[in-house]
Amino acid sequence: MSIPVIFIHKGDHFYLNYSLNQIKITNPETPVYLITDSITHKHSHVTYVDINRYFTEAKEFAKIYKHMSTNGFDNELFCFQRWYILKEFCEDKKLDNVLYLDSDLLLYCNIEQTFHQYDHFDFTISKKLSPHCCYFPSISKLKKFCDFIPKLYLDPNYIDRFLTKHQYHLTNNLNGGVCDMTAFNEYQKEQDVKALDLSLITNNEIFDDNINDADGFEMKDGIKSLLFDKGYYYGTNKETGQRIKFNTLHFQGPAKKNIADYYLGSDFKKIKRKLHFECFLNNNLFLFKVARRLGYKFY
């Protein structure tokens, strides 16, 4: 069976549409699932899944979660809960290997050819922290990670250290704290856990950690300077001068506004016009309500 791609996303934000459509373009035979609280059925190649069907373990985790971050409570909790949602869904559908993607990421490579190379790892990660392109080669390895997460909140060795970390952030007015990225980082310190860091250049290829950051590449207008050639974007490594192929681009934070410029679909102009129109409606509450009442479907 083909490696399925899973998105877990609350709401129906514009950038999600690009990420979903990009999979159809680059991997037309790949099963795509969107686990969400917004069932729109806008994309015929996507299987929409009600997030509430797979929230049992996520609710249980919420009982032990302790908020130790300057970021919002609900957002940080959900970042943890998504891994339990993913596990429940995979168990229910009897999926084994699975590729989880963040909803602000564009993927260009062939999933089957690329990710089966990593079957001997427990999962993929970026800079040992970010799971925005996270491949689990088996459900047992995903379950093992989910079983580890509660230790962060039940084991005194973790709790004391993380409370200190949280206080340091508060005292020094720093953003962040303990989040699911912390869990991934700590999990990699466990015996027999083997993760692959996708942010490292391998065979002149790389998976983008964050298009806002240089990561050793040339920059332009605040993001990586990239050239397009035969279906892929390439960046120039400043240290070696080599041209490096990007298998993904991650439009984190403010870069979400740039995602349309790197989308490969032939319907790019149509979608972009629609998004400009919707931005106009969003700035006019009366017209927005009229459009909703008339049944206009927003991206």
Structure description:
It is a single chain. The protein is of the alpha/beta class and 299 residues long. Helix content is 36%, strand content 19%. The chain is built from 10 helices and 14 strands. Strand 13 and strand 14 (243-250) form a beta hairpin. The radius of gyration is 20 Å and the shape is globular. The mean pLDDT is 90.
In the predicted model, the low-confidence regions spanning at least 5 consecutive residues are none
Tally of separate helices: 10
Structural class by SSE content: alpha/beta
Instruction: Tell the overall outline.
Output: globular
Task: Please describe the biggest sheet, giving its number of strands, its sense, and whether it closes into a barrel.
Answer: 5 strands, mixed
What is the succession of H and E elements? EHEEHHEEHEEHHHHEEEEEEEHH
Question: Order of strands in the sheet with the most strands?
Answer: 3-2-1-4-7
Helix-residue proportion: 25-40%
Roughly how many Å is the radius of gyration?
20 Å
Gap from first CA to last CA: 31 Å
SS elements, strand count: 14
- Mean pLDDT rating: 90
What fraction strand?
15-25%
